[in-house]
Amino acid sequence: MGKDSKNNTLAQNRKAYHDYFIEEVMEAGIVLVGTEVKSIRGGKANLKDSYAQVRNGEIFLCNMHVSPYEKGNIFNKDPLRERKLLLHKSQINTLLGYSTRDGYTLIPVSLYLKKGRVKVALGVAKGKKNYDKRDAIAEKSAKRDIDRQMKERMR
């Protein structure tokens, strides 16, 4: 039997939920070389400023930084190269429809393992304004205060 871990997330884009409203999330495969897979499994991937583009009926992930694998020598690729995402044609058309609408973009939310393969959770995102970010911070703070008060009363 294969091992099935509960937390198989390799990298997350925490800033995405702060800067964008994520409306829909879609799972996609990603084309990688062997040294990139080893580096990602080692936790050396960064999704911070990355985004996805639809070009010629294909989706590419841009600006995802995968640090070179230390033992990879000549097999290492460029850390910021564009990587192709693997989706069905209908899924690509759906994402193309979203991305052509005004204010929407495709943002990778996380990298994770599924049955030994690296997958990308690709989110359809709409940018937040500064007042939206302040409202979200205020709501989080209020919820934390309420939880703290409830915990004290239960003692």
UniProtKB/TrEMBL annotation:
Q: Where in the cell is it found?
A: Cytoplasm
Q: Which PROSITE patterns match?
A: SSRP
| Record-linked Gene3D superfamilies | 2.40.280.10
Q: Main localization of the protein?
A: cytoplasm
What domain of life does the native source organism fall in? Bacteria
- Output the CDD domains linked to this UniProt entry: SmpB
Q: Which UniProt keywords apply?
A: Cytoplasm, RNA-binding
Q: Name one GO biological process term.
A: trans-translation
Recorded GO cellular component terms are: cytosol
Q: Which GO terms describe its molecular function?
A: RNA binding
Q: What does this protein do?
A: Required for rescue of stalled ribosomes mediated by trans-translation. Binds to transfer-messenger RNA (tmRNA), required for stable association of tmRNA with ribosomes. tmRNA and SmpB together mimic tRNA shape, replacing the anticodon stem-loop with SmpB. tmRNA is encoded by the ssrA gene; the 2 termini fold to resemble tRNA(Ala) and it encodes a 'tag peptide', a short internal open reading frame. During trans-translation Ala-aminoacylated tmRNA acts like a tRNA, entering the A-site of stalled ribosomes, displacing the stalled mRNA.
HAMAP family per UniProt = SmpB
PANTHER family cross-referenced by the UniProt entry: SSRA-BINDING PROTEIN, TMRNA-BINDING COMPONENT OF TRANS-TRANSLATION TAGGING COMPLEX
> NCBIfam families attached here?
PRK05422.1, smpB
Q: Which family does it belong to?
A: Belongs to the SmpB family.
Its protein name is SsrA-binding protein
- Species this chain originates from: Clostridium homopropionicum DSM 5847
Native organism taxonomy? Bacteria, Bacillati, Bacillota, Clostridia, Eubacteriales
